[in-house]
Amino acid sequence: MVDRFYLSSDNQLDSGDSLIGEFEITANMIVGDFYERNVPFFTPTNIGSYYLIGVTDATNIINEGGEVGDGNNTLVTEINIAPAYRAIASTDTEIGIAGQAVPLKGQALSNIDDSPVIFEFVTIAIENNGTIRELTAFTDGNGNFSKTFEPLPGEAGNYEIKAYFPGNSAEDSAFKDSFKLLGMQFSSEGVTHKVIGNQAFTAEVDLKNISDLEIQGITYTIEDAPSNWNIQVNVPENLAGSGENTISYTINIPNDSQVTEDTFNLKLISSAGVTAILPVTVDLERNVPRLVAVETLHATSLQNYLTSLQAGMLRGDQTSVEFEVKNEGGEVAENIKVLLPEAAWLKLASPVTIGNLEPGESAKVSLLLTPAADLPLNEYTGNLFLDAKGNNADLELPFYFRAVSDAVGSLRVNVTDELTFFAEGSPMLANATVILRDYFSGEELRRVVTDDTGMVSWDNLNEGYYKLEVNAENHSSFEQTIQLDAGEIETVNSFLSRQTVTYTWTVVPTEIEDKYTIKIESVFETDVPIPTVVIDPPLIDLESLQEVGQVMQVNMTLTNHGLIAANDLNLNFGEHPFYTIEPLIENIGTLAAKSSITVPVKVTRIADFEEPSAKVAQANSLSASSVSNTQQVPCNFPFSGFDYSYLCAGVTIKRGIPIPIINVEGNCPPPVDPGNGDGRLPPIPPPYKEDGGDGEIFIKEVDIPIIKTEFNCNPCITQIAENLSRFIVTKIPYAGIGIGFKTYLLIADLRNPDNEPPNVLAKEVLKEASKVYGKVLQERGYKYLGLAAKQLPNALTLTNNLDKACFIPFLNSILSKSPQPSSMELQTLSLTSSNELDSLEIFNQYIDELQSVIDSQVIWLGDDIWFQDENGEEKFSNFLGSFLERIQKSSDQGLKISSNERNQLLNTPVPEGVTGTDVNKFLDRWNRTVDYWNAGIFNLTDVPSGQSTDFLALDSLATIVIPI
Q1: How far is it, in rounded angstroms, from Cα 500 to Cα 490?
Q2: Over residues 161-166, mean pLDDT
Q3: Which of 399, 484, 380 is nearest to 440 (CA)?
Q4: What would the DSSP string read from start to end of 261-306?
Q5: Relative to the CA of 86, which of 152, 279, 748, 772 has its CA 20 to 30 Å away?
């Protein structure tokens, strides 16, 4: 039989109780016998009520008849632990000063015989204004203790003290001794003043007594002030207990002081040594001329100070801009001159020389803005300069002048999504919000919600730059910068990709701290003419991988609920130093409509903080054994998810869906604030010379990023017709552009020898391209097709279906209006009733071959709009020559196009139909190409995820140009 004894904080036996002892009984006992046992134990160190619990036959090996007999096997006895000693505390300090240490002393006495208690801890309590602080002291061999109380900086008032057995604050509620600390403090921790030279400056500050005793004999001193600064303080001699007084002080600084900014201390000290210190920071403003720009309000005498000039200027007209320059300094501003940047449209209407301005005087400055009728509709920034004698009165005033026009154009916006191209009836997107904003200010100018037609039409818009925004519920957004020309009807085809899947996250806290159960519910549309790919399970939970070497497998099923195949389906998982995630296959390829595929995914725990991988150690420059929780290990898996694409009338739509990885062990660093600006280009500071010299003055035109989205995939007949005719212009693109770029690329040598690409595609592309241009027309006999293509837009109105037979009358029409082909051509392209479809296939083959030739020309500029003017070859040649001149290594920005060069090219004549938007798009593409090639990005596959692929990629050139 076994007996057990426990010590408990309550009268119930449970797993939290402490086992005092366990004893085995081997004797035989007859009825009526009993035994006793003495069990020694240590009492708790904390006072309070405790319970002794004894259990006989604890293992229940003796049958006493069930619950009735065993019910008396446990006995509970309460014991009370009282403090063994008490303490008394006192101090010899009666009145001290703030910041002064206060010595405390006392003795610990036994509660049994009042004898001193040696080498034991006591607690000292110090109360001030309702706040109690406890200090711990240790008695010596005589039972005495001592401790020093260190008040906080600036702390003062009445204090009471007592001491007691640790944890027994209720031992004696009465405090045994007290002391006071005298203190005074200013109402402010520090002040800052701007003081004008040779002018007395006076300020006030409140001083408070933070004790209830009067403070006497207060005087002041000034610490760390320049010797030639005159500082006087008016301070009362006495400060009543808990009272407040106002302290005034006067600062007078010579105008010629060498020190213009300094901080000194105003220090007060009483006869008893109580101190208060006020740091005073002074910024000296010399009494000199000071020019400011002012706008005078006509109705009142109030003035608005101008930090910049902003105005619109009508092209072909003149605009007056006026402001006042005022001398708010203390001396005369002499020989003031107005200096303007060099700009043909900016002139002074007021005199160049203002002369002198007395303090408080002002003069009017008038500017005349006369922009030419063809000045680009940009915002022009720069600085004008008011230069006075000396260096103190000069004023630099930034300006933002915007060229505007009263000529108007029209804007048409077509709003589409995938259903427009795949669903029956080709529905446009309704209930989309279309917003037109001013490009420079962001001000909303027009707003409309589309109806079932999905079209918006706005007329009488002033020519210039605009921002177009299109948004719709459950769709991606669309943004575009538009340059609207006078008399133009600009048509924008906005495409908002439909969001067919949404995810709902539910986070449920668990009983384990910092652990959560995360549920993701996907809501998606089915049976829609869009690929709708959903993955199950929608997340990977790593909570079960707690030890290095553990492995789990997740079978991830991807299901396409849509009616269109998802192409290029890929699974992507990032890297983590503690885990690896390896799908059986990553590149799944095409997932057909209404189909599924299951991919096993293996997840392995490869490291932790105790057993880190070499990757963790290397990242922290430490040995593997020394890596700890202080090193940065990410608590998530970056770039994990799946992506796929689909084709919408020749345009690739790509979707990416993240796969959350939860319960990833790591430690996350705090986010870094990237900072931001106000979006406006800062004014360019001109390097003016002193005393009104002829320093150079700059003016800057704001560079406007123009983005034109070429997305015009209309359904049905337009879809096929665009594919056949998009690049079939009135003639083959101007011969020689490829050779022109070849010559330039060889000269500029973008393939920098120090950064040689890993292949020789560039050389092959240029070599092969030079063999083609100038020969293709004669060799392939396509000249009549170019002219025939002029009739293509008319033919598109003849049919609205995808039936190939609809092209028969169209084909007859364009052949009848083309120059008579040769007998061989007629034989090849004859369209008799017996072989109409065969002839159509032949025609399509010729078109496809012609398309490849045109593609090999267009790729250099990125858009066929440059070749759609039948008579535009001369303008195009001149523009291309101007472009090549500005990308020489000796130009503004070397190979790249600078803002000034961009403005010059925007003013260069271009073929009919090419807008400023198209020019900006071409120049952006070129600058992007230079940046990419210099960064070692030569192929489309080299482009980082999320960045533009619109550049001269070598793999594209190889695919399009070399096969010719």
Answers
A1: 31
A2: 92
A3: 380
A4: EEEEEEEEE-TT--EEEEEEEEEEE-S---EEEEEE-SSSS-EEE-
A5: 152
Pairwise CA distance, residues 283 & 285, whole Å: 6
Given a contact cutoff of 8 angstroms between Cβ atoms, the answer to whether 583 and 526 are in contact is no
* Residue 964 pLDDT exceeds 60: no
Under 8 Å between Cβ of 91 and 161: yes
| Tokens, residue 370 | 């006369």
pLDDT value of position 789: 34
Q: What is the 3-state secondary structure (H, E, C) of 843-855?
A: HHHHHHHHHHHHH
Task: Give residue for tokens 């030079």.
Answer: 770
Element (H, E) at 194: strand 191-196
Whether 196 and 288 have beta carbons less than 8 Å apart is answered as no
- Beta carbons within 8 Å of 425's beta carbon, 6+ residues apart: none
SS3 861: coil
What are the helix (H) ranges across 5-102?
67-70
Residue 80's closest CA among 9, 15, 13?
9
Q: What is the 3-state secondary structure (H, E, C) of 730-757?
A: CCCCCCCHHHHHHHHHHHHCCCCHHHCC
Contact predicate 213/180, CB 8 Å: yes
Q: For 733, phi and psi rounded to 5 degrees?
A: -45, 145
- Tokens representing residue 498 in the block: 């439909």
The answer to whether 86 touches 124, Cβ cutoff 8 Å, is no
Mark 891-928 as b/e (b = at least 16 C-beta within 10 Å).
eeeebbbebebbbebbeeebbeebbbbbbbbbbbbbbb
Q: How many CB atoms lie within 10 A of CB 107?
A: 20
The amino acid present at 954, given as its one-letter code, is: L
Check residue 946 and give its pLDDT: 76
Q: Which of 346, 326, 348 is nearest to 338 (CA)?
A: 348
Among residues 674, 675, 677, 694, which one has the least CA distance to residue 686?
694
Strand partners, 896: 893
Nearest one of 404, 374, 409 to 492, comparing CA atoms: 409
Q: Which two tokens stand for residue 873?
A: 């070859």
Q: Which of 146, 137, 135 is nearest to 106 (CA)?
A: 146
What residues form DSSP beta bridges with 88? 107
CA–CA distance, 962 with 948 (Å, rounded to integer): 24
Return phi, psi of residue 390, to 5°: 85, -170
Q: Rounded CA gap, 909 and 901, in Å?
A: 14
| pLDDT tens figures, 289-329 | 888 888 865 444 456 788 888 888 999 999 999 999 998 87
Angle between helices 737-748 and 836-858 (to 10 degrees): 30
User: Going by C-beta distance under 8 Å and a sequence separation of 6 or more, which residues neighbour residue 175?
Assistant: 125, 127, 160, 161, 162
Q: Which helix (H) or strand (E) holds 413?
A: strand 408-416
Measure CA 719 to chain center.
40
The count of residues in the chain is 964
Separation between Cα atoms, residue 149 and residue 153, nearest integer Å: 13
> What pLDDT was estimated at residue 784?
33
Q: What letters, b where the CB count within 10 A reaches 16 and e where it falls short, cover 26-55?
A: eeeeeeeeeeeeeeeeeeeeebeebbbbbb
Geometric angle at alpha carbon 89, from 86 and 92, rounded to 5°: 165
One DSSP character per residue, 808-832 reads HHHHHHHHHTSPPPPHHHHHHH---
Provide the pairing of β-strand 95-97 with 177-182. parallel
Taking the C-alpha atoms of residue 265 and residue 275, their distance in angstroms, rounded to an integer, is: 12
Question: What pLDDT does residue 505 have?
Answer: 55
Angle between helices 737-748 and 761-769 (to 10 degrees): 140
Compute and round to an integer the Cα radius of gyration of the chain.
44
Cα 100 to Cα 102: distance, rounded to the nearest angstrom: 6
